[in-house]
Amino acid sequence: MRIVLLGIPGAGKGTQAHRLADRFGLALVATGDIFRANVQDQTDLGLLAKQYMDSGELVPDDVVVRMVVDALDQHPGGFILDGFPRTIPQAEALEQDLSSRSRPLSTALAFDLPDHIAIKRLAGRRTCQRCQRTYNVEFYPPKVEGVCDACGGVLVHRDDDRKETVRHRLEVYYGSTFPLWDYYRERGLLRVVDADGTEDEVTERAVRALSDVPSGQ
Ligand code: AMP
């Protein structure tokens, strides 16, 4: 299966991406995670991306596309893309690249969540600096405050999860990314999942939405 995930920031794409990748044995390519790792390692890519990420802007298309194409080179089997594409030009570049490899997308799974719930989730979200797992101080707290249950890493409130930046990220989402729902709908690839529920409930809905996608496709 070759899947892209769509949905507003806070819809739970990252969490569900990990779960679905485990469940179906797919490689996970999460562009935000790759950028954050580069920021932490202070690479040239990280220094460039940070300027955009901190203000909730998108990293330029050519930079992201090159990064994703390189990542897909390393994963010849099935994959889940989390956080990409985020613009129509990115979707077109992906379509072209996959078609040149005769590996067309199987589906675009879109997580549907009202803005006010997404905003509440992001305000309480804490992310592990080491393994990127996310928690929520209100809905899904870690066992020990500030410490990742899974790896013991430090949990941080991402700069771009702060209130002022979240508002801008939502504007960017509706301006640049939401049109992708129609882009994939027109290609018969869009499947919408209700993302308002517990992590387990949403995973079940996503698995059901994928149930008729042949695993070889
Ligand atoms: P995420 O973890 O997916 O919310 O991504 C965090 C930030 O990384 C975004 O707000 C963007 O600044 C940048 N980013 C991640 N993926 C992309 C993409 N496909 N296109 C442009 N910027 C991206």
Explain the overall architecture.
The protein is 47% helix and 16% strand. It is of the alpha/beta class. The strands form 2 sheets. Strands 2-3-1-4-8 form a 5-stranded parallel beta sheet, with helices on both faces. Helix 1 (13-24) crosses helix 9 (199-209), helix 2 (31-40) crosses helix 3 and helix 6 (115-124) packs across helix 7. The longest helix is centred in the last third of the chain and has 15 residues, at 163-177. The radius of gyration is 16 Å and the shape is globular. 35% of the residues are buried.
Cα distance spanning the termini: 5 Å
Q: Count every beta strand, where a strand is a DSSP E run of 2 or more residues.
A: 8
Low-confidence sequence ranges? none
* Mean pLDDT across every amino acid position: 93
> Secondary-structure element order, as H and E?
EHEHHHEHEHEEEHHEH
> Helical amount among residues, as a percent range?
40-55%
Largest sheet: 5 strands, parallel
Strand composition percent: 15-25%
Q: What small-molecule ligands were found?
A: adenosine monophosphate
Structural class: alpha/beta
What sort of overall outline do the alpha carbons produce when their principal axes are compared?
globular
TL;DR?
The chain is α/β, with parallel strands linked by helices and 217 residues long. It has helices at residues 13-24, 31-40, 44-53, 61-73, 88-100, 115-124, 163-177, 179-186, 199-209, and strands at 2-7, 27-30, 79-82, 107-112, 125-128, 134-136, 155-156, 190-194.
